[in-house]
Every structure is written in structure tokens, then in C-alpha cells.
Design brief:
There is one protein chain. The protein has 382 residues and is α+β, with helices and mostly antiparallel strands. Among the domains are: 103 residues, Beta Barrel (conserved putative lor/sdh protein from methanococcus maripaludis s2 fold); 88 residues, Elongation Factor Tu (Ef-tu), domain 3; 71 residues, RNA polymerase II/Efflux pump adaptor protein, barrel-sandwich hybrid domain (OB fold (Dihydrolipoamide Acetyltransferase, E2P)), CATH 2.40.50. The protein contains five helices and 22 strands. Strands 3, 11, 12, 13, 14, 15, 16, 20 and 21 form a nine-stranded antiparallel beta sheet that branches. A four-stranded antiparallel beta sheet has the order 1-19-18-17. It has a four-stranded antiparallel beta sheet with strand order 4-10-9-6, with no helix packed on it. A hairpin with a 5-residue loop joins strand 7 and strand 8. The protein is elongated. About 24% of the residues have low confidence.
């Protein structure tokens, strides 16, 4: 019984050992493979194997060498690239620095654009200068109109009685005197001959009759005394409130070669139906005949004035870079000076800042200075 029990125990232990053997073998194999793998990796790093696989050793060795070389080349390439980048940055810095300096210099010259003009050249081109100081600035309203006959000195001549025109003694354009015979008429009722005479001194502007005509109350002649004429202006509604009888007005031709100081002598109480304007009349002396009826004219009517501390002629002002400037003279150098303009009149403009009393500025020919500066600036930019 004991022997039989011992036999069973031994058989059980043998069976248990047999079952454990594959597990132990697998663990040992795994451990061996683990060491082999790590050993092979280390050997690859060392560029060598001792297991006799020459082909694999050569392949690994070549790959290792090539890989090292590639890394070396990459490193060189990286160094070269970095060097090139630095060079580009240096080049960029140089370019940017130089461009900035050049631009700054150019901009400075443009900001400080000046004109150098000799006295002889200035005189030849009509440049005039004067010192800044006080002046009267008169504010005006521009007007447009025509020269017309003075209706108070114009006569429409008719025959006293209906009749037959026997003779006409004057022609169109003739100058006549008061009482001068103009035509001879035979009365229809009395058959008596009577004369038609001039009621005023003047010029025959219209002749509406000939020999053989029947008068029958119609107009025969128009005579106008042209020693005075009317400057007849149309005042727009927005300006009517600023214009009064007695206000001074400067009447001038379109080319401004002829001008005359006058006063508003009449404002019509009615409005023109077509233009919706109010008619203003300024009477002008015309002994020399320069004002011809029918001429288009302009006028500047004074609506306000001011004694400005500093004022310059309007021709002295120029626009440069969207600023109004005057040109200040120092020696032979002319420099644009930005100014602020206050009240602007017909002839002068008030300067509220930018120009000091006593400074010498260009009062005439300022456009010559402007053209010279702009020309120099354009040449510099090219």
C-alpha cells in the first residue's frame, strides 16, 4: 500500500515537471532572443557582428557609414544654409539701411524744396517782393451782367401828327444835338409841313422810317445819350441780403483790362420772372465811349472789409501739397511757407499764421517760384 502510494506520488511529480518544461523553455528562449536583439543592436552600432553573417554585416556597415556621411552632409548643408541665410540677412540689412537713408535724404529735400534764383533772372521773370505788413482786406461778392443804355437818357422819337414822310435828314449812328431836324413830315389833316427834331443830345441808335412812310404814331428814331451807361447786374437770391443801394462796386471787363469804380444806384423792387434774380444798376460815366451797350461785364461789390494785421496780394498765394503757401525770400533763396488764410478780399487775403511782419515774401510772380521747385523735385525723384 505504501509502495503503491509512493508510485503515484512519483508519477504525479513527473507529470507536473513535464508540464512545466515548455514554459521554462519558452521563457529561456524569450530571454535569449531579448539578449540577442539587444546585442545585435549594439553590434550594429559598433559596425560589426560575430555571428558569421558577412552580407548582413556589410550591409549594416555600409548603411552606418552612409548614414553618418549623410548626417555629415546634412550638417554641412545646414551650416551652408545657415551661413547663406545670415548673408542674406546681412544683405537685407545693408539694403534696408541704404534704402532708408536714401529715402530719408530724398524726402528731406522734398520737404525743404527751395528755389535758387539770381536777381537778374527774378527781374526777367517778373518776380516781385515786398515786406509783410498790415493792409485793408475788402470782402466782395462777384457779379455778372451787361452794359445797357441808360434808360433815363434814351429817347424814342415819334411824329406829333400822322402824316407822310417827305424827307429823312439823319442816318443810323449819327451824333445829334437837342433840337436838330431829323425828318420832315406832311400832316394828313392840314397838309402842312412840319419837322421832327431831336429831344436830347445823343446818337441815333435806331432809324425806323424812310421817305414815303406814313408815320401813324409809330417810333421813327431812338436816340441815346451815351455819356453815361448802366452796368446792369443780376443778383442771386442768396446774395440779395448783402447788397444795398449806395454800396461800392468795381465794374470790369472780362479780361479786366478796363475797370471803373461805381456805386449801386438802383435795386429793382421786382424779381426777374425768368432768372429769379433781382436787377441792380450801377451808373457809369462814359465820355470816352469805352463802355459799349451789350458788353458782358463782371463786378465785385464790397460787402465787408477789415484792416488785417498781415495781408498779402491774392496772387502771392499758391497751393503746394494741398497747402496754401507764400514764398519767403532770403538772399537768392525762395522757400515755400505754409500759411493760414483768414478773410479773402478782391485783391488781398488776410494771413492769420505762418508769416511774420517784416518778412520778405514774393508778392508777384509766385507761380514762377512754384514751377521751379516742382521741376527740381521731379528731376530729383527720377
Amino acid at each position: 500500500m505504501n509502495r503503491k502510494y509512493l508510485t503515484l506520488v512519483v508519477m504525479g511529480l513527473a507529470l507536473f515537471a513535464w508540464q512545466l518544461t515548455p514554459v521554462m523553455i519558452g521563457s529561456a528562449k524569450a530571454e535569449t532572443e531579448f539578449h540577442d536583439d539587444h546585442g545585435g543592436h549594439d553590434e550594429q552600432k559598433g559596425h560589426g557582428h560575430d555571428d558569421g553573417h558577412e552580407h548582413e554585416d556589410g550591409h549594416d556597415e555600409t548603411d552606418g557609414d552612409d548614414h553618418s556621411d549623410d548626417h555629415a552632409e546634412d550638417g554641412d548643408s545646414h551650416d551652408d544654409h545657415g551661413h547663406d541665410s545670415h548673408e542674406k540677412e546681412d544683405s537685407h540689412d545693408d539694403h534696408g539701411h541704404g534704402g532708408h537713408d536714401d529715402h530719408g535724404d530724398e524726402h528731406g529735400e522734398h520737404e525743404e524744396g527751395k528755389a535758387e534764383i539770381s536777381p537778374d533772372a527774378a527781374k526777367l521773370t517778373g518776380i516781385q517782393v515786398q515786406q509783410a505788413g498790415s493792409a485793408l482786406v475788402a470782402m466782395t461778392t462777384p457779379l455778372t451782367g451787361r452794359i445797357t443804355l441808360n434808360e433815363n437818357t434814351t429817347a424814342n422819337v415819334r411824329a406829333r401828327f400822322p402824316g407822310f414822310v417827305k424827307a429823312v435828314h439823319v442816318n443810323l449812328g449819327d451824333t445829334v444835338t437837342k433840337g436838330q431836324k431829323l425828318a420832315t413830315v406832311e400832316s394828313n389833316e392840314s397838309l402842312k409841313i412840319y419837322s421832327v427834331t431831336a429831344p436830347i443830345d445823343g446818337v441815333i441808335l435806331r432809324r425806323e422810317t424812310n421817305i414815303g412812310d406814313v408815320t401813324d404814331g409809330k417810333e421813327l428814331f431812338v436816340i441815346a445819350d451815351l455819356s453815361t451807361v448802366w452796368a446792369k447786374y443780376h443778383i442771386f437770391p442768396r446774395d440779395v441780403a448783402n447788397i444795398k443801394k449806395g454800396q461800392p462796386v468795381v465794374v470790369h471787363t472780362l479780361d479786366e483790362k478796363t475797370s471803373q469804380n461805381a456805386q449801386i444806384s438802383m435795386l429793382f423792387p421786382t424779381t426777374d420772372a425768368l432768372s429769379q434774380t433781382v436787377i441792380a444798376i450801377a451808373e457809369l460815366p462814359n465820355e470816352n465811349g469805352v463802355w459799349r451797350p451789350g458788353m458782358t461785364i463782371e463786378g465785385d461789390i464790397k460787402v465787408g472789409e477789415k484792416q488785417a494785421a498781415i495781408a498779402v496780394p491774392r496772387d502771392a498765394l499758391q497751393f503746394m501739397e494741398d497747402q496754401q503757401v507764400v514764398f519767403v525770400k532770403s538772399g537768392n533763396t525762395y522757400e515755400p511757407r505754409p500759411v493760414s488764410v483768414g478773410m479773402t478780399g478782391t485783391d488781398n487775403a488776410e494771413i492769420t499764421s505762418g508769416l511774420k511782419r517784416g518778412e520778405t515774401y514774393v508778392s508777384a510772380g509766385s507761380f514762377v517760384i512754384k514751377a521751379d521747385i516742382l521741376k527740381g523735385t521731379a528731376a530729383h525723384e527720377h
